[in-house]
Design brief:
Blueprint (H helix, E strand, L loop, with lengths): L7 H6 E3 L5 E4 L13 H6 L3 E3 L2 H10 L7
Antiparallel strand pairs: 1-2, 2-3
């Protein structure tokens, strides 16, 4: 049986931690800062966060067939 490949897009955008949580960058934080977003939105979309427990299980199973990167 051939080896399963890790999804390249997931590998670039997410990171599986040792405890099973999946770390990812927040969305909507790249452009349109002058008029389209409030300061609260801009502040809350900075940095990274973790996926929910159920989502992280699904992502690691489908996108990372051999576990963490």
């Amino acid at each position: 049986m051939p080896k399963l490949k890790t999804r390249s897009a997931a590998k670039k955008r997410m990171q599986v931690k040792k405890n099973g949580k999946v770390k990812h960058a927040k969305a909507f934080a790249k452009h349109l800062f002058t008029h389209a977003k409030s300061m609260d939105n801009r502040r809350n979309n900075r940095g990274t966060s973790h996926l929910n427990q159920s989502d992280s299980k699904r992502v690691t199973k489908e996108m990372f067939p051999y576990g963490a990167n």
